[in-house]
Write a structure and sequence with these properties.
The complex is a heterodimer of chains A (314) and B (221).
Chain A lengths: L12 E7 L3 H12 L4 E5 L24 H14 L3 E4 L2 E5 L5 E5 L4 E9 L3 E3 L15 E2 L2 H4 L7 E5 L3 H11 L4 E5 L9 H9 L3 E4 L2 E8 L3 E8 L5 E5 L2 E4 L3 E3 L29 E3 L11 H20 L1
Parallel strand pairs in A: 1-2, 1-6, 2-3, 6-17, 8-15, 9-10, 9-15, 10-11
Antiparallel strand pairs in A: 4-5, 5-6, 7-16, 12-13, 13-14
Chain B lengths: L5 H14 L4 E7 L9 H12 L5 E7 L4 H6 L8 E6 L4 E7 L7 H12 L8 H7 L6 E7 L6 H14 L3 E7 L4 H6 L7 E4 L2 E5 L4 H13 L1
Parallel strand pairs in B: 1-2, 4-6, 5-6
Antiparallel strand pairs in B: 1-3, 3-4, 5-7, 7-8
The chains are: A alpha/beta (314), B alpha/beta (221).
Bound molecules: flavin-adenine dinucleotide.
């Protein structure tokens, strides 16, 4: 696969600035473009967002099975077709105090816009146990698709029990010798089909009712210490790597004090996806809501951009 | 069918006509020994497809062993496939790729084509440029990546921009799977993994100011 996304010169003003190039942001850009608005998507990494870490996606209606990065590339092209522009940079600050919003980028650029759509999504939650920081990048990983290759033929552990954790366990099972899934309860939270698939893989084993207490090693991860919640017994698992998939935290730090956030840091909006600041919207995983999926992020992007077009450019 | 789809070609054609100015030279070093270079053929093929799109992009294919003089001039050290960019007037800004830039990494190749066609000026903030000026010794930045890592292309681009900003700096993408020994030497087990002057400087994705700070601090000690 070769993704050919290119970039044009960035202007000082756009009708709509979209912060974050995941499915929520790209859907918003597509709808903004079709509504005739000028629109730029600012993405700090690669367009696609968390979809880039999904080896396979099979719950986006109309598409039975697709690789995450490929769906991301399709969404980008689709938005570009209707005039949306993309730029690689991280947004480091925002100024929502005036009617004209200002978005400040790490490459020194500042963009003004009437409307800002926030779709910064979420990042991997940390375990916060001894050894995690020390061995991050030395056996501790938060991205199986990024780093799985380095553990070919080895034994690894993975913490978590949700959809993401099972997707990653299944991906790793094809690369590594054995995956030990450490989960704090005695059953998984993941969707039925993913559970069944994981249970049927002979090289995925489960360590139930257990929490990770410590990560140990010399230069690299060698052991993961787990505690059984029922018995209180501690065991050392000998593994070369530990993958962490225990949920997400919203990428909302730069909006703190500027927008209404809920107690967990997710951005609060009304049913049109508009925040407490007029002209500023939030969509996707960063928004305070129920189901966090590609299809909901995309739907919310559509709602936000359409509402913005009608309300501010009608 | 080619490696790039018809839509890709159309897309790049539009992009290059809008954004390119002068000629760009892409040099690629290969080896016909497939046991040594699994991805040389495909690397050359995809670059050929790109260069066919706009006549201002000139591709020069060299054999890393047979064309010894050129390989030596650009310090390829037998690592294939290797790719580098030159401006129309032959300026080498120290931008390198070792291994195939596939997946999202390929978009950095497109960015570099546009950049080198416009004089290879670094696209960095004034504050970063000021810091990069302090690098007064020969410095090599290696960014180890895997093709499936979405956080890696930005790190590669930032390293390449630093190379464009200061003649003391060269910066290379290294595809870790293709160079297992080289990766092992630096203990790479998560990407992006950034090595500066033969020592691991940091691991992980960072915004521009932190990336530049980490590299500059590592050089200046
Ligand atoms: C391994 C894995 C598998 C998954 N599988 C599925 C699945 O099968 N089906 C499904 O429906 N969902 C799946 N999900 C969940 C799904 O990917 C997310 O719900 C969805 O991507 C959320 O979209 P989003 O647009 O809100 O944000 P994200 O996809 O998180 O994208 C946000 C983007 O914003 C960028 N960003 C953040 N802050 C800044 C900033 N300051 N400046 C610039 N850019 C910034 C980030 O780099 C990122 O690219 C999976 C997730 C993971 C991790």
């Amino acid at each position: 696969m070769f993704f050919v996304g290119g970039e044009s010169n960035v202007r000082d003003y756009y009708d709509v600035v979209v912060i974050g190039g995941g499915p929520g942001g790209m859907s918003a850009a597509l709808y903004a473009g079709r509504a005739g608005l000028s629109c730029i998507v600012i993405e700090g990494n690669s367009t696609g967002g968390q979809m880039n870490e999904a080896d396979v996606i099979e719950n986006y209606p109309g598409i039975e099975e697709i690789k995450g990065p490929v769906l991301g590339e399709k969404m980008r092209r689709h938005a570009e077709k209707f005039g949306a522009q993309f730029h690689t940079a991280t947004v480091v600050d925002v100024d929502f105090s005036g009617q004209m919003k200002r978005t400040i980028l790490d490459d020194g650029k500042i963009i003004s816009s009437e409307v800002v759509i926030i779709s910064t999504g979420a990042s991997h939650r940390k375990l916060n146990v001894p050894g995690e920081m020390e061995f991050s990048g030395k056996g501790v990983s938060y991205c199986a698709t990024c780093d799985g290759h380095f553990f070919k033929g080895k034994k690894v552990a993975l913490v978590g029990g949700g959809d993401t954790a099972m997707t990653e366990a299944l991906y790793l099972a094809n690369l590594v010798r054995e995956v030990l899934v450490i989960h704090r309860r005695d059953k998984l939270r993941a969707t039925k089909v993913l559970q069944e698939r994981a249970f049927s893989k002979p090289n995925i084993k489960f360590v139930w009712d257990s929490i990770v207490r410590e990560i140990r090693g010399n230069e690299k991860v060698e052991k993961v210490v787990v505690e059984n919640k029922r018995t209180g017994e501690k065991t050392e698992l000998e593994v070369s790597g530990l993958f962490i998939a225990i949920g997400i935290v919203p990428n909302s730090e730069i909006f703190r004090g500027k927008l209404h956030l809920d107690s967990q840091g997710y951005v609060v909006t009304d049913e049109n996806m508009e925040t407490n600041v007029r002209g500023v919207y939030a969509v996707g995983d960063v928004r305070s809501k129920g189901l966090r999926q590609i299809v909901t992020a995309a739907a919310e992007g559509a709602v936000a951009a359409s509402h913005a077009a009608e309300t501010y450019f009608g | 069918m080619g490696l790039l789809s018809e839509q890709d070609v159309q897309y790049l054609n539009d992009l290059f006509s809008k954004e390119m100015r002068d000629d760009v030279r892409i040099l690629v070093f290969k080896s016909d020994d497939t046991s040594r270079c699994e991805y040389c053929d495909i690397t050359v093929s995809v670059l050929k497809e790109v260069t066919d799109i706009d006549e201002r992009i000139k591709l020069e294919v060299y054999d890393a062993d047979d064309d010894e003089a050129v390989a030596k001039r650009y310090d390829i050290k037998g690592r294939v496939p290797a790719i580098l960019f030159l401006t129309a007037d032959g300026q080498d800004k120290g931008v390198r790729y070792f291994g195939i830039p596939s997946g999202h990494e390929f978009s950095t190749v497109i960015q570099n084509i546009i950049s080198f066609s416009n004089g290879a000026n670094p696209s960095l903030s004034p504050a970063s440029l000021e810091k990069i000026k302090q690098v007064d010794i020969p410095t090599e930045i290696l960014v180890f990546v895997t093709p499936t890592c979405p956080y890696c292309p930005r790190a590669v681009l930032l390293a390449h921009e630093m190379a464009k900003a200061n003649d003391n700096i060269t910066a290379a993408m290294v595809e870790a799977n293709e160079f297992p020994e080289w990766s092992m030497e630096h203990g790479v087990s998560a990407v992006p993994h950034i090595v500066v002057n033969e020592e691991t400087a940091f691991i992980g994705a960072y915004p521009e100011d932190m990336f530049v700070d980490h590299v500059v601090q590592h050089v200046l000690g």
